[in-house]
Write a structure and sequence with these properties.
Blueprint (H helix, E strand, L loop, with lengths): L1 E9 L3 H12 L4 E5 L5 H5 L2 H18 L15 H15 L5 H6 L3 E4 L2 E3 L4 E4 L2 E10 L3 E3 L7 H4 L4 H5 L7 E5 L3 H12 L3 E6 L10 H13 L3 E4 L1 E9 L2 E8 L4 E6 L1 E4 L3 E3 L13 E2 L2 E2 L12 E3 L10 H16 L13 E3 L4 E6 L2 H8 L4 E7 L4 H5 L6 E7 L4 E8 L2 H4 L1 H8 L4 H5 L10 H30 L1
Parallel strand pairs: 1-2, 1-6, 2-3, 6-18, 8-9, 8-14, 9-10
Antiparallel strand pairs: 4-5, 5-6, 7-15, 11-12, 12-13, 16-17, 19-20, 20-23, 21-22, 22-23
Helix pairs in contact: 1-10, 3-4, 3-8
The protein binds flavin-adenine dinucleotide.
Length: 476
């Protein structure tokens, strides 16, 4: 006997929770199916635990370098179990927002189990059969394990397996220099591990602006992290109690590195197996669900949002997409998703805040002649100096009329600092408009005015130059 619902949501991470609660609040009969625990990657194995560890690692680093603040440096006693328990306490507190009872109170039928589509409108879970007008796939993503000789056979860590442990390896090789790999590299290093990052591309954090990348690279290297970019991991073998990892660069040069553990952070894949998607007419691209700009899959009335459909894999993007999806599913007309004004953070210390295009992206899109950049070093921002965090910068990438096409910050709380620019861009303000804002002193926002005032110097230079040239031509 099939139970009737308006909407069945598969996956109880951010995307699924926001979709289910949105539909329930709009009076729909909703079932939400989750095979592990509500909260998904963000709460259990992603944002929350890693940022809690970033905070502990930052404190350990500051203790070692307390002389910068005029205090006696101390070597912190690193007790992995107590650090991991402190992280789990942060999870417990944030997890209160994702407890099943909260969603049941909204009238949602929260079902523990693994879901599978049995037709375009029917879902099987445990021994139940649910029929729905609309079905939402929000099953998220997981580590994609590359087919490297000996990797699986000899064992490896990823964010999920590491976060279950109470032990930090003495040495590790991190496979992948993207956000996950780099955040973990700094965490492990600050907890005392020897860390090697191997990145196949020429640069780590390749989505960031080159000025930001250069500084992150320098900061990580100064902390003792070895970075091999332009190198690929070819094989892993056991060597006594260690793992011997052979890496190779594009010129065919090879090296063998000995470490206690290999940590895989080189990519993600969608959780799309055993869901009955293809049989229901839902197309996949590689492992991700294909969805259009309205978040509609290739099968009628089956929708997808969050990590499972690839694209920008962030919690705030999953939530944004879920809101759009609910709107498109339940109301007439359609509203497309747009990522133009979506920022992101990279939670190294100091943090990265990113919105819009990098300088190379703007050069490619607009042509280098039409791109202007305005940068302020944090050493010139008094707040960064008094806080003893001077190594960063704020960089604006604009067109020749001052339209902000991108902005990139490396500073404490840069993910918050960049929000001012996100709002300005969204409201169509130019960098010139930002120069007119008054910020508290001393604040990091001061960097925004400082960079914006460079724009006026640029304009004035152009104007004075033009007048000068005219006067010179006239007087000849
Ligand atoms: C180490 C790490 C750090 C991160 N840090 C950040 C950060 O700082 N900021 C940020 O914005 N993003 C961060 N992210 C990304 C963020 O965690 C994801 O973008 C976000 O969790 C995606 O949400 P989602 O709902 O799409 O998927 P998920 O959170 O993965 O939820 C999917 C859910 O579906 C369930 N599921 C899967 N298949 C089935 C099935 N057949 N039946 C029932 N249930 C099923 C899963 O158990 C899971 O709970 C990080 C990711 C990682 C890995």
């Amino acid at each position: 006997m099939s139970e009737q619902f308006d909407v069945v949501v598969i996956g109880g991470g951010t995307a699924g929770l926001v979709t289910a609660s949105g539909c329930a609040r709009l009076g729909r009969r909703v079932a939400l199916i989750e095979r592990e625990a509500l909260g998904g990657d963000c709460l259990w194995t992603g944002c929350v635990p890693t940022k809690a560890l970033v905070a502990s690692a930052k404190l350990a680093h500051q203790m070692r370098h307390a002389d910068a603040w005029g205090l006696e440096p101390v070597t912190p006693k690193i007790n992995p179990k107590s650090i991991m328990n402190s992280m789990r306490e942060a999870q417990r507190v944030t997890g209160k927002h994702d407890e099943p009872e909260k969603f049941r109170k909204l009238g949602i039928d929260v079902i523990e189990g693994t879901a599978r589509l049995v037709s375009r409108s029917k879902v099987a879970v445990n021994s139940r059969r649910l029929t729905a007008k609309d079905i939402v796939i929000a099953t998220g993503s997981r580590t994609s394990v590359p087919p490297i000789d000996g990797l699986k056979e000899n064992g490896f860590l990823d964010h999920v397996s590491f976060l279950k442990r109470d032990h930090f390896p003495r040495s590790l090789l991190i496979l992948g220099g993207g956000p996950i790999g780099i955040e973990f590299a700094q965490i492990f290093r600050r907890f005392g591990s020897e860390v090697i990052v191997v990145e196949m591309l020429d640069e780590i954090c390749h989505k960031e602006d080159p000025d930001v990348i250069a500084r992150i690279r320098r900061i990580l290297q100064e902390e003792g992290i070895a970075i091999h970019s332009g190198w690929s991991v070819m094989s892993v073998r056991r060597d006594g109690g260690a793992k011997a990892v052979r890496i190779e660069n594009t010129s065919g040069e090879t090296r063998e590195l000995r470490v206690e553990e290999v940590f895989v952070a080189s990519g993600r894949r969608g959780n799309t197996e055993d869901l009955g998607l293809e049989e229901a007419g839902v197309k996949l691209h590689r492992s991700f669900v294909v969805a259009d700009k309205y978040l509609q899959t290739t099968a009628p009335r089956i929708w997808a949002c969050g990590d499972v459909h690839g694209g920008l894999q962030f919690t705030h993007v999953a939530a944004y997409e879920a809101v759009k999806l609910v709107r498109n599913m339940l109301f007439p007309g359609k509203s497309p998703v747009s990522y133009e004004h979506v920022p992101w953070g990279l939670y190294t210390d100091p943090e990265v805040g990113h919105i819009g295009m990098t300088e190379p992206e703007a050069n490619a899109a607009l042509g280098p002649d039409r791109v202007r950049t305005y940068s302020v070093e944090m050493i010139d921002v008094d707040r960064a100096v008094v806080d003893r965090t001077p190594g960063g910068l704020l960089k604006f990438v604009c067109d020749s009329k001052g339209k902000i096409v991108g902005a990139h910050a490396l500073a404490p709380n840069a993910s918050t600092l960049i929000e001012e620019v996100v709002l300005a861009r969204k409201k169509g303000m130019t960098i010139g408009n930002l120069a007119g804002l008054v910020s508290s002193y001393p604040s990091f926002a001061d960097a925004v005015q400082k960079a914006a005032s460079l724009y006026y110097q640029d304009v004035a230079k152009g104007w004075i130059g033009n007048v000068g040239r005219r006067v010179a031509a006239w007087s000849q």
